[in-house]
Amino acid sequence: MVTIGTTTGTGQPVHAPGRASNGLAAFAIAALLAAGGPALAADRAGELKTFRDWVIGCDNTLACTALGMAPADGAGSAFVKIARAAGPAAAPEVSVVVYAETTPAAPRLRLRLDGGKGPGLPSDVFTAELDGDFVRARLTGSDAAAVIAALLPAKGLTVELLDGSKSLSSSPVSLSGSSASLRYMDAEQGRAGGVTALVATGSAAASKVPAAPAAPVVTAVAMSELSPPPKRRPAGIPAASADDCPIDPKEMAVTLAGDRTLWGVCVSAGAYNFTYEFWVAGAGKPQPARFEVPGAGAVMSMGEDDDYAALVNPGLSDDGMVLSAFSKGRGIGDCGGLAEFVFDGERFRALTYAAMDTCMGVPADDWPVLYTARRR
User: Fold this and answer.
1) Whole-model pTM above 0.85?
2) SS (H, E, C) the chain
3) Where among 160, 188, 208 does a domain terminate?
4) Is residue 87 situated within a structural domain?
5) What is the pLDDT of residue 277?
6) Beta strand pairing status for 129-131 and 134-139?
7) pLDDT tens digits, residue range 47-94?
8) Same domain, yes or no, for 77 and 186?
9) What is the extent of the structural domain holding 85?
10) Is 38 part of any domain?
11) Residues 58, 44: contact at Cβ < 8 Å?
12) Whole-angstrom Cα distance, residue 293 to residue 300?
């Protein structure tokens, strides 16, 4: 993917996160939190919910992701992710993830529970794999179910990173809010009171769980970035201002179907967020582009008012099919908003949107997805 205007940022290390949502005023997270509810329409984004030290979000297909992180009064480099799709047959998946300051040759994770009178873990040591700068244990089926059952009554969790039998680090994960988060997941997916629920269990058969709503289908027409962009902009499109973008006032030009060109001009530059406003130029006067996530609005707006033509740190995929934006809550990119759009020949349509409003070292690939469409 080609990304415009990336920098190293100010960057606290990923293994020393802070719970404060630093810099989240930089994008319109408030618009995100206005959507959602137990009966989400398939064309509306979900919302983020915080239950003490856990964050959960469900998308428009009612696929949900819950994240448990370090205690609010401590620092840690581990988190737990519990994800589950909607529908009667969908089973939960659990990931236990820890940041690796040194790369283990034979990574494993040891889990230790603090308190509680639950059934206990199926094992105290789990096989893990390297995933970039992280070590991840992926649990499915009976192992995932057993881990969830063991976590719920416990007071805390410690995740120890091993290289073979050698201990490399130890990090706490708070379980405060885990039960409430998974109860919320049960309710959103229509599982409460049934045998498939994780917390709100009952006797209702799995067949009573509603099917997952179908994701909207969007047409994608290939785009092509012009690099470098033409030296002459179409009349009516302003140049980047050195006052607003003194660091990297690049322009972006992308050819669209119908002899049109998408022009992006930097309007704001910071240590790690570069905001671009976009126009579509063709016959007649250039028109502002419109990037909107249904139910969440202009999620990439940097100003007080919604700006549907703005994207933060925009980039075009190598195949020209997806235009993405990544608004960072802080330099290491462990909170913020991540959106993808396609061009259907007439307008830009949202493909995915994920967000994280708590800065605790969780990489963007693990954030709750709040909107999903299917590309054709």
Assistant:
1) yes
2) CEECCCCCCCCCCCCCCCCCCCCHHHCCHHHHCCCCCCCCCCCCCCCEEEECCEEEEECCCCCEEEEECCCCCCCCCEEEEEEECCCCCCCCEEEEEEECCCCCCCEEEEEEEECCCCCCCCCCEEECEEECCEEEEEECHHHHHHHHHHHCCCCEEEEEEEECCEEEEEEEEECCCHHHHHHHHHHHCCCCCECCCCCCECCECHHHCCCCCCCCEECCCCCEEECCCCCCCCCCCCCCCCCCCCCCCCEEEEEECCCEEEEEEEEEECCCCEEEEEEEECCCCCEECCCCECCCECCCCCCCCCCCCEEECCEECCCCCCEEEEEECCCCCCCEEEEEEEECCCCEEEEEEEEECCCCCCCHHHCCEEEECEEC
3) 208
4) yes
5) 94
6) antiparallel
7) 999 999 999 999 999 999 999 999 987 677 999 999 999 999 999 999
8) yes
9) 62-208
10) no
11) no
12) 10
pLDDT at residue 21 is higher than 80 = no
Q: Give yes or no: residues 265 and 129 share one domain.
A: no
Q: How confident is the model at residue 15 (pLDDT cuts 50, 70, 90)?
A: very low
The pair phi, psi for residue 328, each rounded to 5°, is -95, 135
Residue 242 shares a structural domain with residue 353: yes
Q: What letter represents residue 35's amino acid?
A: A
Which of 305, 306, 343, 310 is closest to 327 using CA atoms? 310
Residue type for 263, please? W
How many residues are listed for the chain in this entry?
A: 376
Where among 174, 208, 242 does a domain terminate? 208
Residue 46 lies in a domain: no
283 with 305, same domain?
yes
Claim to verify: residue 294 and residue 346 sit in the same structural domain? yes
Same domain, 224 and 129: no
Q: What is the CATH number of the domain that holds 152?
A: 2.60.40
Closest CA relative to residue 216, chosen from 62, 70, 372: 372
Are 301 and 329 in the same domain?
A: yes
Same domain, 168 and 302: no
Number of folded domains in the chain? 2
- 348, part of any domain: yes
